[in-house]
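Lecture 7 notes: from sequence to structure.
We start with the chain below.
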Amino acid sequence: MAAVPVYRWRLAPDGLATRRQLRAIGLRPGGQDVAAQVERPRRRRGPLIAYLYAIDLAKPVRPMTPAKWASLAKANAARRICPDCRRDAGYVIPSSLGMCNACHDRPEPARSKHWKKEPSCPESTGIRSSPA
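Predicted structure tokens for the same chain:
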């Protein structure tokens, strides 16, 4: 890889942009090599580095197909399903908890560690357990 020019923070020439800047104007690098890099100095660690790409060589962003939209919607819906009570929480389940807030706030013995066929969350709708 050939050496690329290095510019100080905010001193890069016009015609170059980062990936995020390209995306903001509806472009993508499109397979081109890095044209330059910008370094932002920090006190106690190494500098932050951002790679720059030529705007004139950038290509337009590919449009989302209906299949991609459907796949994205399915993935986001899966992040909202509580693995404990199997209901849609209405928000993305935090990975730190691993379950919805209602299941997390229940006392420890009431929580199930593994998925059950029947929802165990009191707020879940539908199936109720029959007395044994």
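Points to note: The radius of gyration is 25 Å. The chain has a mean pLDDT of 85.
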